[in-house]
Write a structure and sequence with these properties.
Elements (H helix, E strand, L loop, with lengths): L1 H9 L7 H46 L3 H6 L2 H23 L1
Length: 98
């Protein structure tokens, strides 16, 4: 869009009127907004899939561990750890990837 503004101020594209420059500039703005929205949705979906995969693996690991480990480890500690990991993935991963 900066390049288009430069062309517009210099009038270097022959045959373009102010209306056509405005339409081109507005089209670039709308295109940028649409692509940014699509990228945000894609990163949110990728973060959700990563979070779901981690939680499924962690839960399966906890459920199929030895009974002695469950007797020594408080249930609150297990729940707290799993929920903290998932919260970190849900909030931080998509934002940092973006």
């Amino acid at each position: 869009s900066t390049v288009i503004l430069g062309f517009w101020t210099q009038g270097s594209i022959s045959g373009f009127s102010n209306r056509e420059y405005m339409a081109l500039y507005a089209g670039l703005g709308v295109g940028t907004a649409i692509l940014t929205f699509i990228a945000a949705i894609a990163f949110a979906q990728a973060g959700f899939n990563a979070s779901l995969g981690l939680f499924s693996s962690a839960l399966q690991g906890v459920m199929f561990t030895n009974i002695q480990w469950h007797e020594k480890t408080p249930t609150g500690a297990i729940t707290n750890r799993l929920s903290k990991d998932i919260d970190t993935l849900d909030t931080s991963l998509p934002r940092n990837m973006m």
